[in-house]
Amino acid sequence: MYGSNTLVDAVNQASSQWKAAFNAHDAKGCAAQYEEDAVIHAKPFGDFEGRSEIQAFWQQIMDNGLSDVEYINPSLEVIDDTTVKLQSEWRMNNAKGVITNEVWVRQSDGSMKLRLDEFEAIDAS
Hints:
With about 120 residues, the chain is α+β, with helices and mostly antiparallel strands. It contains three helices and six strands, in the order ααββαββββ. The protein is globular and about 40 Å long.
């Protein structure tokens, strides 16, 4: 069983993998960090459900020239022995915003995957 520090470490590692995939313009790699039936609520872009919609969403963002994502002052809260909530400000080369609710859940294989991703772009150039 994960302790809270180990769970947070696992989320940090999974989140780093997502950011690395995004910064490598790998939409499939981004989508792989989500559960199969995960949901994204992205203001002002819309809602996306399931890995194929999520992959298409990230591909469109990349095709629009956005890159170089980084999280600013992330905060992680352990919800229970399998779930962590992440909140953070973020910025990219041509946009910035806020993550209000990333819900990471430990999978049966021990990996962490996103179940819910709620964020907002508050400035896009």
